[in-house]
Specification:
CATH topology of the largest domain: TIM Barrel
Number of domains: 3
CATH class of the largest domain: Alpha Beta
Shape: globular
CATH superfamily of the largest domain: Glycosidases
Largest sheet: 8 strands, parallel
Helix content: 40-55%
CATH architecture of the largest domain: Alpha-Beta Barrel
Strand content: 5-15%
Strand order of the largest sheet: 7-6-5-14-13-12-11-10
Length: 606
């Protein structure tokens, strides 16, 4: 009996202890955040010094503790910004919207996500500004924009080749919101993907500089009926009528959205090149009548307004713009504009030979005008031909060798600081023009250009470095990178080379067949009239050629789809493959049909 009594007492004690422990842990382990109870062991385990968020946007927020300057975050909707940035970017009528977009931080998702939230893990590493001139790789996204998964692979490659920044020209790939949503491509990057791009750039120690056109090359905006009334010339969607009442408000909204996604940016490129037909709108003509017909002053006036729009939202930010429109503007006209204090011209020349004397005159002119600095722009692709599909490496190497000579002369311009060079990689000459070379095809050219800038020439050391990094050896004369290649996109590189060099030539070789030329003319095919004895001499070979290419192109399409969105794959195949393959398929189809007719009299093809 005594033994049973003791057992009962022990069990009663254990049950009582368990109940007390349960109620104690459930109350201590939960806190309220924004009127919602969360578990301290999951949602905020990384923040030991947690304090409830203030409703005041201006109140300073305690940052999470980080190790080795590495901060891991889950961001819903918006990247974190300080209160001053929120005041600059958000208009007075939108404060409530800003308050309704909180920033949450975490290492990983531990609970079921709220369906109203879009969470993504972001690793933010502070970018240390470069102390010298930057080497920027230009990504032109107005055609064949790579998927973010591919950018994740090539950003470290850019860095290893000697780049320390990215000039990213979003065009219609930016995730415009609200009234501007019609501007974005169906395959535009999402807000989360923009954050991921920024994170990847930071991890690769690449400074991001956004580029948004504000004057010329606004085809992606002005093609829409909603904004067609803002064209400088009603027929053409190229240039903005800077004096139309709705033009600056439109640009302000576009700039606001891009700047909001890039609070870390030190520079902003406003484009402003090739403003065709400037001065031809009625608004411009009236302005010119009152201003001595000075088109240059009209151009500078608009640039000044745009620069002030940016600095109102981002005080201290420096603008960059393409220099071609100011090359013929007088020094006094530029001196009378505050653009010289707000922005840097980016002098661009993409040819294999540069007129050093003419370029020196430009540098003298810009120094005298009062610019404090200047950028250069070379190219690694997209400037040798409007329909180029295979990058001529030597063309771009020679371009950089000339730019090195210009860089060596900069000591002659003591008040004009050399800021850096953008190695441009144009994907189209403009929004309405076909694609140039794909990015993977131009990686060897980019490698040669970057290493040439690094070593001061394409030396043996530079050549070895390219070989080591890319896994293939540059051959300038046959214009290839010889070897399998270990760089991201190498498969597409080699497959485009095969298409470029073999698709049309293999069909041409087949067309030289004596029996094919004699038996497969357009007339004979139209009337199903041929001797099967002659057709047998090429029927099997023709079918094999067609099947081999069909198989190869199916593999090629799959490789393309890994890197590019469907519209790019369709466009590239349509412009570079489909015509030849349609011809080949038609010849095979007609040959086999006529062969099966066993040499009958003429009859029209069904």
């Amino acid at each position: 009996m005594d033994r049973r009594r003791w057992l009962k007492l022990i069990v009663l004690f254990l049950v009582t202890f368990a109940i007390v422990k349960f109620f104690s842990s459930s109350s201590k382990g939960r806190v309220k955040i924004n009127s919602k109870t969360v578990d301290t062991d999951t949602d905020i385990f990384w923040w030991s010094d947690y304090a409830p968020e203030s409703d005041n946007l201006d109140a300073p927020k305690e940052p999470p503790k980080a190790e080795k300057n590495l901060v891991k975050e889950i961001i819903t909707k918006e990247p974190e910004q300080n209160s001053e940035e929120l005041r600059n970017l958000d208009s007075p009528e939108e404060p409530q919207e800003a308050m309704e977009k909180p920033v949450k931080e975490n290492v990983k998702k531990e609970r079921e996500p709220n369906p109203k939230e879009e969470e993504i893990e972001i690793i933010k590493v502070p970018v240390k500004p470069s102390t010298g001139p930057l080497r920027l790789v230009h990504l032109d996204l107005k055609g064949a924009a790579p998927k973010v998964s591919y950018l994740k692979q090539i950003f470290p490659l850019f860095s290893s080749l000697g780049a320390d920044g990215i000039l990213i020209e979003y065009e219609d790939m930016f995730p415009y919101e609200g009234e501007l949503e019609i501007l974005k491509s169906p395959f535009a990057y999402s807000v989360e993907e923009i954050e991921e791009i920024k994170t990847m750039a930071n991890l690769s120690k690449l400074e991001l500089i956004p580029l948004m056109q504000v004057f010329g090359h606004l085809e992606f905006v002005l093609k829409h009926e909603k904004y067609a009334h803002l064209r400088e010339v009603a027929k053409y969607p190229n240039s903005l009528n800077a004096l139309a009442p709705d033009s600056l408000p439109l640009l302000k909204q576009m700039l606001k959205q891009i700047l909001k996604r890039h609070p870390e940016a030190r520079f902003f490129h406003i484009g402003a090149d090739e403003v065709y037909e400037l001065g031809e709108s009625e608004d411009s003509k009236h302005w010119l009548e009152k201003n001595n017909g000075d088109v240059g002053a009209l151009y500078l006036s608009h640039l000044s307004k745009v620069c002030h729009l940016v600095t109102e939202m981002r005080p201290g930010m420096k603008m960059i713009f393409w220099d071609d429109m100011i090359r013929k503007i007088s020094v006094p006209a530029m001196q009378n504009s505050d653009v010289t204090k707000l922005a840097f011209p980016m002098i661009w020349n993409y040819g294999p030979q540069i007129d050093i004397k003419s370029l020196a005159q430009l540098l003298d002119k810009y120094q005298e005008a009062g610019f404090s600095g200047v950028w250069f722009a070379s190219s690694f692709k997209g400037t040798s031909a409007v329909d180029q599909i295979w990058t001529p490496i030597k063309h771009h190497l020679d371009n950089h060798l000339f730019w090195l000579k210009v860089m060596d002369s900069m000591a002659q311009y003591p008040s004009l600081t050399y800021q850096g060079i953008a190695i441009t990689g144009w994907q189209r000459y403009e929004h309405f023009i076909r694609l140039c070379e794909l990015l993977p095809v131009a990686i060897p050219s980019l490698a040669v250009c970057l290493q040439t800038l690094k070593y001061g020439s394409f030396t043996e050391e530079a050549e070895k470095a390219v070989h080591h990094i890319l896994g293939c050896k540059i051959q300038l004369e046959p214009n290839i990178c010889e070897g399998s290649g270990s760089f991201a996109g190498a498969e597409v590189y080699h497959m485009v080379l095969k298409i470029h060099t073999e698709l049309q030539s293999s069909i041409d070789a087949m067309m030289k067949n004596h029996f094919l030329r004699g038996s497969l003319s357009n007339y004979l095919r139209k009337y199903n009239f041929a001797n099967p004895r002659n057709l047998r001499h090429f029927k099997t070979e023709l079918r094999k050629l067609k099947d081999d290419w069909e198989s190869f192109l199916e593999r090629f399409r799959k490789e393309m789809e890994v890197i590019f969105y469907p519209d790019t794959v369709e466009e590239w195949m349509e412009d570079n493959v489909n015509e030849q393959m349609s011809k080949l398929r038609s010849m095979v189809q007609d040959t086999e049909r006529i062969y099966d007719l066993d040499g009958r009299k003429k009859s029209l093809k069904a």
